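2.7 Reproducibility. Because tokenized structures are sensitive to small changes in the input, we list the exact sequence used for Probable 5-dehydro-4-deoxyglucarate dehydratase, including any N-terminal residues retained from the expression construct. No trimming or masking was applied before prediction.
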Amino acid sequence: MQLDRLSSFPVTAFDAAGELALGPYREHLRHQIDAGPAAIFACCGTGEFFSLTLEEYAAAVRAAVEETAGALPVFAGTGYGTAMAKQYAAAARDAGADGLLVLPPYLIKPSQQGLLDHFRALAASTDLPLIAYQRDNAVFTPDSVAELAGIPSVQGFKDGIGDLDLLQRMMAVAPDLTYFNGLPTAEVTARSYAAVGVKAYSSAVHCFAPEIAHAYEAGLDELLTEFYLPLVKLRDKGAGYAVSLVKAAVRRRGVDVGSVRSPLTDPLPEHLEELDQILEQGLTVVRKAAA
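Resulting structure tokens (single pass, no recycling of outputs):
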């Protein structure tokens, strides 16, 4: 699994009636692919996996596979309980996905044994490689990660809690997994993760400003204070803004991907004005560096 830099997690487009809009979604995907991420992760957190029916999910994953045309690997999200996770995994495989990002199980907080059973059952149901996503109600111990690594199809581990001490202990017992920084606005912690050997990360900013995402990855550190930290401050002003603010930014840069689906809500008007200011600050830094 050669994913040693930032990956794109595209949003999923909806029309004015809230229905899946594959035309704008494909346009958004083309922008993402052309910008050159390591991979496309379709229908994951930023892509509102939790709001998609199985049929919509299958159509969106298939569109991502068709648009990449083999140029980039396509990973699809899967989640909920084990039975439903297997259904989404099967749909992703039928649609041509190259792997799966396994989101935390729905609602309950499982035991370590329950998490391992979940992954074993999912692995037995598909030949696609799996990436475990540690966040919220799915937090592993180092011993459990060592057992995860013993499942041949589990090839990656995405960390969304930010405990670098815990992560390093996991890496010590399961060094062959590919590790990812999966925190919201991961660029803010990318340097810290890189210091412990984790260079890959998910970039929501890539959805709407790939030029900023790649400039920061290349070492334009001024973007941290001029763009990323203000963006995080704005993100924290609204529940669900880690998704809805990103989707609003995609719209404001010219692709009509629509609104988020409930129970998420779109950003407030004053927050959209602030988003425009922050985006312009970031683009200005990139333009000056390129001049």
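The two ends are 36 Å apart (CA to CA).
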